Amino acid sequence: MKAILALEDGRVFDCRSFTGHGEALGEAVFNTGMTGYQEALTDPSYHGQMLAMTYPLVGNYGVNSEDVESDRVWVRAFLVKECQKYPSNFRSESTLADYLSGQGILGVEDLDTRALTRHIRNAGSMRACVSTLDPDPDSCVEKARKSPSMKGLSLADEVSTSKPFIWKEGRRVFLEPDQCAEKAREWRKEDERPLVAAFDFGIKYNILRCLERAGIKPLVLPARTGPEAVMELGPDGIFLSNGPGDPEPATRAIATVKKLLGFRPIFGICLGHQILGLALGGKTYKLKFGHRGGNQPVKNLLTGRVEITSQNHGFAVDMDSLQSFGARLTHVNLNDDTVEGFSQEDARLIAVQHHPEAAPGPLDAKYMFKEFLGMMV
């Protein structure tokens, strides 16, 4: 089924749909991982984007009900060189094509993903339109240009949970908002593990698994939760999750975190890292094409060790803007020297731009969860 991918700068690529008819708009980005397509598809941080995989063959091990990072697919469209129609893996429960079409997500193949990736690397991530319904390249280019830009777009509320929940044995147990304080008191009597208020800006399931394995009990809160509600819970720590979009328009979350600075130890990952930087008074900026994949080298300046990390972000913290606020640079990206982590002793916070929970990816940075635990006990 013929399709075209049109970028806002006028570049057009021919391709074919492997999921049926459809049309999608979003920011075109690429992921350099060789595996982990199902985790990427279900990562809420990809909301508003169409994802291209640089590895040429995708879908060869199928999909299953366990390797997901949320309860749905979040990408606007999935762009690959070749989709394997007949997966071979003992854990496979479905084909990639059936998985995507079952959720109404357009998937295209026979796309020159190498050329697309090189173009994005040179020109930067940009808005795109992929369609089987509109064969006119000029029309699709115009649709891409009229779609919302990721710069200035706040998306965390769109992916966040609507109700608080706890993570219990690999599943979410939802609570009513007025039950949280009472439940928190009950848990303290029954459980010696530190209780953490975890803001859901697009939290991945493996973050919850890692918090739990580290000996932490997370109570997950909607992104819109105010500081007073958090203080009423009296948690031992606060966690700020990953998520999609531009961090600067997330003014409500930034204001909330600003009021919580110093109240309890805080750990931020990805968007949470950026929100912490803004809450301290710093600034963020959009990267040319972002970091997405499981092979990003990061230097831990506290230990001197180089860690290979999993990443998925298109914005970064400006460390120069944080110097006057007592923040200390702790991690740096060795590919482009961008900020990968900082700390602030007075506010008792740590933050990293990369993903220590991986899923998929290397586990070099997993120690961050234990470090967070050590701040609370």
Describe the structure.
The protein is an alpha/beta fold and 377 residues long. The chain folds into two domains: 2-146, 3-Layer(bba) Sandwich (Glucose Oxidase, domain 1); 156-375, Class I glutamine amidotransferase (GATase) domain (Rossmann fold, 3-Layer(aba) Sandwich). 25% of the residues lie in helices and 31% in strands. It has helices at residues 37-41, 96-102, 113-123, 137-146, 156-159, 180-190, 205-213, 227-233, 251-260, 271-279, 367-376; strands at residues 2-7, 12-17, 23-31, 49-53, 57-58, 77-79, 82-83, 106-109, 126-131, 165-168, 171-174, 195-200, 217-222, 237-240, 266-269, 283-300, 306-318, 328-333, 339-344, 349-352. Helix 7 (205-213) links the parallel strand 12 (195-200) and strand 13. It starts with a strand and ends with a helix. The model has no long low-confidence stretch (mean pLDDT 97). InterPro entries: Anth_synth/Amidotransfase, CarbamoylP_synth_ssu, CarbamoylP_synth_ssu_N, CarbP_synth_ssu_N_sf, Class_I_gatase-like, CPSase_GATase1, GATASE.
